[in-house]
UniProtKB/TrEMBL annotation:
Chief localisation class: cytoplasm
Species for this entry: Astatotilapia calliptera (Eastern happy)
Name of protein: RHD domain-containing protein
Domain called RHD: residue spans: 43-234
PANTHER family: NUCLEAR FACTOR NF-KAPPA-B P100 SUBUNIT, NUCLEAR FACTOR NF-KAPPA-B PROTEIN
Ranges of biased composition (kind: Low complexity): 414-440
Gly residues bias (residue ranges): 363-379
C-alpha cells in the first residue's frame, strides 16, 4: 500500500473489536494530535498511570544494520514463563482514547531523544500509538524495540524532529524562517552535546476525544524509569570483585589493583568515606582513564586519611561510584594503618634503652665466686666446674684465673689453676685407695680437655691484659678489637653486627677501626653481612647519608650489588633519597663488573632512574644517565618510562629536563600503548600537552585499547559499543559507517578538558589520515581558532620581525610570558623566538597576556600589530555571524548531516 493506512473511526472501532489490528501493519500519522497544552488535573479527573514499568537493564539497543531485536522490551516484572510489557492505564475515564509513547532523555525535565522506537504501531518519527477503549483503557506495548542512532547522526535526527514539532504547532503548510531554522539547529546541537545515548525513558501521553471526535485533549504525560543499553558499561550494576590490598598507610599513595564489573573509564570514581557522629568524611582514589584496563580493572592510589596522627588502625569504606548517574557499588572495608616513620628501623636502633639492674650479689675482694672485687686485689675471677662423675658442668669453678698488681706499678701477674671440687678430690682419694681401678677413659679425656681449655684461657687472658695496657698507653682501640676479632661478626636480636650498629650511631672512627680489624684478620665477609631487613652496612651508610662511610666501605670491598628486602641496591636507595653526592660516589666505584646495576630493577620493577624521577631529583637523573642509565627503559609493572612517570606525577621541570637535556623519547609507549601525550591528555594538562607537542609528540598514535568492538560479535559478549568513541568521519560513500575497524584511543579521544582538546585538535578529522580515504569534511583545529583570535601565522611572523628589529632577547620575552621553564626547548632552534610564540599560542595563551608582555618591553610596534589583527578578526567574525546561523557556532561543533559528504 502506498502511503499511510487511513481508517475512519467506525472502521477503526470495528477493527479493534475484531482484533484485526494485531495482524496488520499499522502506520498511523497522528496529524490531528497536539501535544500542548495539557488538560488541567482535577481531583477526580482522568489521568494516565504506568502500571508496568519497562525493564531497566538487560535490553539491548540495536543499530539499523543489526536488524530487529529478539523480542520486545519486557516489563519490569517479566519472567521466563510469564511475560509482561510496559503498560499504562487511563483512570477516571470511559470512552475512546489514544496513547502515544516516545523516547525521551533521562534528564529532568525530559527532552526528546535521538533514538527511535520501532516495532508494531510505530511510525517513522520514532513514536508508537495505540487506540484503546471504550471499556478497557489499558495499553500494553508488547513489541517495542529501540533503534540506536549513531553519534554522527544525533544532530541531524534531533534537528528533523524539532523541525517537525515546530511545523506541527504552527500548521502543516507553514514555512520556517532562517532565524527559526538557526534556533532549531542550535537547540539540536546543545541537546546532542548533553544527551546520553545509552539511557532512555519512555514518555506516555494519552489523548482523549474532543467534541469533533479528534484526539486533541492531551492528559499530562508520565515518564518511565530509565532504560539502560545492555551493551553500555553503565547498564551493569557496579560491583567490586577483588582487591589486592585492604589496608594502606594513613598518608595515602598505596597502589591498589581493583577488579570490577564493566565500568566506563571516564565516568567512574573510587570513593573512600567514613560516617560517624561528627559527620561524613570522603576522599577519592587517584587514577586517570588510562589506569582503567578494559573496563574491568582499575589501578589507583589511595587518598590520605583526614587525620594522619592516628595511633591505631582505622577502618573506612570504599565503593565504586558513577560520576553522572551517582549510583554506587556495595561498600568494601579498607583499613588505614598509622604511618611508619622509621621504615628502615634506624631511629629505633639509635635509641638507648635504660639498662635493667638486678640486685648485686657479687663478692667483695679479689676471690669472690663470679664477682668483680672492689678492693683487695682488684681482680675478677672466672669459676666453672666440671663434674667428673657425670661429665656435666657443675656449679663450682672449672678454672680459676686471677689478676693482681694493677695500679701498683708491678705489671700484670696471672696465676691459673684447675681446682678440683671436694667431690672430685674424694673420688681421687677413693681411686687411690682402690689402686686406681676406677679410672675410666671418659674421665681421663675430660681432664685433658679441661687442662687444654685452662691453658687457652690463660693465654687469652694474658693477651687481653697486654692489649688493655697498650690501649691505655696509646688510646688506639684497634689493639682491643684485634683481641676480640673473633667477636666482630656477632649479631644482636635485629641481626645487626657491630659494624651495623656503628653506622647506625654515626660512629665514624669506630667504623674505620672495625673495618681495619676485619681486613687485618681476613674477615672481609662480615662487611657483606645483612641484618634481618637484608640491609648490609653499605645499605645503612646510604640510608643514613654518610658519604665518608660509603667511601670507606667501597674501598674495603663492600659489594654494591647486594639487595635489601625490596630488591634495592645501594644505588636504588641513593636515587630514592635524591642524594646526588652518594650517588656520584657509587657510580664512580661501580666498575665494569657492576655497571649493570644502573639499569637493574628492584622487586617493584623500578630502576634507579625511575626512583630518581619520583624524588624529583634532577641532578640524580643527570648522573644516572651519564653513568649509563637507559633514559627510555620502562619499569616492569606498566611499561612507564621516566618521562611517563614525570607526566603522571606532574613534574614539569623534570619532564623538560628529560626531553631537552637527556633526550627522552616523547613517543615511547607503555605496555598498553599509551604515550606521555596520552597521559597528559587524560590528566587534563594543557601545559604538558603543549610542551610534548612542541617536542615532537605524535598526536595520532593510538593505544592498544579499542574504541569499540565489532557489532558482529555474539550478543552474549561483554564488550561495549562505545558509540560516542566509535564515531569517526571515515570511509567513502559506498562503505557502511556503522561497520568500521576497531582502532585504539588517540590522546584526543582521552581528553575531556576543552583546553586540551583545542591543543590536540588536528587540522582535519582525527582519523582521516589513518582510517581510510574519502571525501571527508575537515573540522577546524585549535590553530585556526587561535588564528581567529589574532594570532595567525602571518601575525606571528610579523611579530617576530618586530622583535628582531627591536633586538629583544627571546629569553627576556619568555620571562615576561612566564615560560622560562621551556627555554631549553628552543635553545637549539634556529628561530627560538618564533618557536616560543608558537608554543605560547598552542598552550592557549591569551593575546592580552602577550600584549602586556610587549608593553612592558616597550615594543609599541608589536602591540599595534596585535591590536590591528584583533580589529580585523572582529570584523571577519561579525560578517560570518550575520551571514548564517551556523557561523555563530564554533566550527568544530558543526557536523554535516548524515550521508552528506
Amino acid at each position: 500500500m502506498a502511503g499511510a493506512l487511513r481508517m475512519t473511526e467506525a472502521q477503526f472501532i470495528g477493527g479493534y473489536e475484531h482484533d484485526l489490528q494485531q495482524f496488520m501493519p499499522y502506520d498511523y500519522i497522528p496529524v490531528d494530535i497536539k501535544t500542548e497544552p495539557f488538560m488541567p488535573e482535577t481531583a477526580h479527573g482522568p489521568y494516565i498511570q504506568i502500571i508496568e514499568e519497562p525493564k531497566q537493564r538487560g535490553f539491548r539497543f540495536r543499530y539499523e544494520c543489526e536488524g530487529p531485536s529478539h523480542g520486545g522490551l519486557p516489563g519490569a516484572s517479566s519472567e521466563k514463563n510469564k511475560r509482561t510489557y510496559p503498560t499504562v492505564r487511563i483512570n477516571n475515564y470511559v470512552g475512546l482514547a489514544r496513547v502515544e509513547v516516545q523516547l525521551v532523555t533521562h534528564t529532568d525535565p525530559p527532552r526528546v531523544h535521538a533514538h527511535s522506537l520501532v516495532g508494531r504501531h510505530c511510525v517513522e518519527n520514532g513514536t508508537c500509538t495505540i487506540d484503546i477503549g471504550p471499556n478497557d483503557l489499558t495499553a500494553s506495548f508488547s513489541n517495542l524495540g529501540i533503534l540506536h542512532v549513531t553519534k554522527k547522526g544525533v544532530v541531524e535526527v534531533l534537528t528533523r524532529r524539532l523541525r517537525e514539532e515546530k511545523k506541527r504547532l504552527k500548521g502543516p503548510h507553514c514555512h520556517l524562517t532562517d532565524v527559526e531554522e538557526s534556533a532549531i539547529v542550535k537547540e539540536a546541537k546543545e541537546l546532542g552535546k548533553t544527551m546520553d545515548l545509552n539511557i532512555v525513558r519512555l514518555k506516555f501521553t494519552a489523548y482523549l476525544q474532543d467534541s469533533t471526535g479528534a484526539f486533541t485533549r492531551a492528559l499530562k504525560p508520565v515518564v518511565s524509569n530509565p532504560i539502560y543499553d545492555s551493551k553500555s558499561p553503565n547498564a551493569s550494576n557496579l560491583k567490586i570483585s577483588r582487591m589486592d590490598k585492604t589496608c594502606g598507610s594513613v598518608l595515602g599513595g598505596d597502589e591498589i589493583f581493583l577488579l570490577c564489573d564493566k565500568v566506563q573509564k571516564d565516568d567512574i570514581e573510587i570513593r573512600f568515606y567514613e560516617e560517624d557522629e561528627d559527620g561524613c568524611w570522603e576522599a577519592f582514589g587517584d587514577f586517570s582513564p588510562t589506569d582503567v584496563h578494559k573496563q574491568y580493572a582499575i589501578v589507583f592510589k589511595t587518598p590520605a586519611y583526614h587525620s594522619t596522627e592516628i595511633e591505631r588502625p582505622v577502618t573506612v569504606f570504599l565503593q565504586l561510584r558513577r560520576k553522572k548517574a551517582g549510583d554506587s557499588s556495595d561498600p568494601k572495608q579498607f583499613t588505614y594503618i598509622p604511618q611508619v616513620l622509621d621504615k628502615e628501623e634506624v631511629l629505633r636502633k639509635k635509641q638507648k634503652p635504660l639498662p635493667h639492674y638486678e640486685h648485686w650479689r657479687g663478692g667483695r675482694g679479689g676471690g669472690g665466686a663470679g664477682g668483680f672485687g672492689g678492693s683487695g686485689g682488684g681482680g675478677f675471677q672466672f669459676h666453672q666446674e666440671m663434674n667428673g662423675a657425670g661429665g656435666g658442668a657443675g656449679t663450682g669453678g672449672f678454672f680459676n684465673v686471677s689478676f693482681s698488681g694493677f695500679g701498683n706499678g708491678g705489671g700484670a701477674q696471672m696465676s691459673g689453676s684447675a681446682p678440683q671440687s671436694g667431690a672430685a678430690q674424694q673420688q681421687q682419694q677413693t681411686d687411690r685407695q682402690t689402686g686406681g681401678q676406677s679410672d675410666s677413659p671418659l674421665r681421663q679425656q675430660l681432664l685433658q680437655i679441661a687442662a687444654a681449655l685452662n691453658s687457652r684461657v690463660s693465654q687469652s687472658a694474658r693477651q687481653t691484659a697486654t692489649a688493655l695496657l697498650q690501649y691505655c698507653s696509646t688510646g688506639d682501640a684497634r689493639v682491643l678489637l684485634a683481641i676480640q676479632r673473633h667477636l666482630c661478626g656477632i649479631q644482636d636480636g635485629n641481626g645487626d653486627t657491630p659494624l651495623h650498629l656503628a653506622i647506625i650511631h654515626h660512629q665514624t672512627g669506630v667504623i674505620q677501626q672495625l673495618i681495619h680489624t676485619l681486613l687485618s684478620s681476613q674477615q672481609q665477609g662480615i662487611i657483606h653481612t645483612a641484618n634481618h631487613l637484608q640491609q648490609t652496612p653499605l645499605h645503612l651508610a646510604v640510608i643514613t647519608r654518610q658519604v665518608k662511610v660509603v667511601e670507606v666501605l667501597l674501598k674495603a670491598g663492600a659489594d654494591p650489588s647486594l639487595v635489601d628486602k625490596d630488591g634495592r641496591t645501594p644505588l636504588h636507595l641513593a636515587a630514592l633519597a635524591g642524594d646526588h653526592n652518594i650517588l656520584r660516589f657509587l657510580l664512580a666505584h661501580l666498575g665494569e663488573c657492576h655497571a649493570h646495576l644502573v639499569n637493574m630493577p628492584d622487586f617493584h620493577g623500578l630502576h634507579p632512574l625511575h626512583l630518581a624521577v619520583r624524588r624529583d631529583g634532577e641532578r640524580c637523573l643527570r648522573l644516572l644517565v651519564e653513568g649509563g642509565a637507559k633514559i627510555n627503559e620502562p619499569e616492569q609493572k606498566s611499561g612507564n618510562t621516566a618521562l611517563h612517570l614525570a607526566v603522571r606525577e606532574n613534574l614539569f621541570k623534570v619532564a623538560c629536563l628529560l626531553i631537552t637535556e637527556l633526550r627522552a623519547d616523547v613517543n615511547a609507549c607503555t605496555f598498553g600503548g599509551n604515550t606521555p601525550l596520552h597521559l597528559a591528555a587524560s590528566l587534563s594538562s594543557p601545559t604538558f600537552c603543549s610542551m610534548l607537542i612542541a617536542a615532537g609528540a605524535d598526536k595520532s598514535i593510538e593505544n592498544d585499547e579499542p574504541l569499540f568492538f565489532s557489532s558482529s560479535s555474539s550478543d552474549d559478549e561483554d564488550e561495549p559499543i562505545r558509540e560516542e568513541e566509535k564515531e569517526r568521519e571515515v570511509a567513502p560513500k559506498t562503505s557502511n559507517p556503522r561497520k568500521r575497524p576497531a582502532g585504539g584511543h588517540t590522546p584526543l579521544d582521552l581528553a575531556k578538558c576543552q583546553k586540551v582538546r583545542k591543543v590536540l585538535s588536528p587540522s582535519k578529522s582525527p582519523k582521516s589520515d589513518r582510517r581510510g580515504s574519502g571525501n571527508i569534511r575537515p573540522t577546524t583545529s585549535s590553530t585556526e581558532e587561535v588564528e581567529r583570535a589574532g594570532l595567525d601565522e602571518d601575525t606571528l611572523s610579523q611579530l617576530v620581525n618586530v622583535l628582531s628589529v627591536g633586538d629583544v632577547p627571546w629569553k627576556k620575552l619568555a620571562e615576561k610570558l612566564g615560560m622560562m621553564t621551556l627555554t631549553h626547548l628552543y635553545q637549539d632552534s634556529p628561530t627560538p623566538c618564533h618557536q616560543l610564540l608558537r608554543h605560547y599560542k598552542l598552550g592557549g595563551g591569551a593575546v592580552e597576556g602577550l600584549v602586556e608582555a610587549l608593553q612592558s618591553l616597550g615594543l609599541t610596534e608589536g602591540v599595534r600589530l596585535l591590536r590591528n589583527a584583533e580589529l580585523r578578526d572582529d570584523k571577519h567574525n561579525t560578517d560570518i555571524t550575520v551571514d548564517s546561523g551556523f557561523g555563530s557556532q564554533p566550527m568544530e561543533d558543526v557536523e554535516p548531516p548524515a550521508g552528506v559528504q
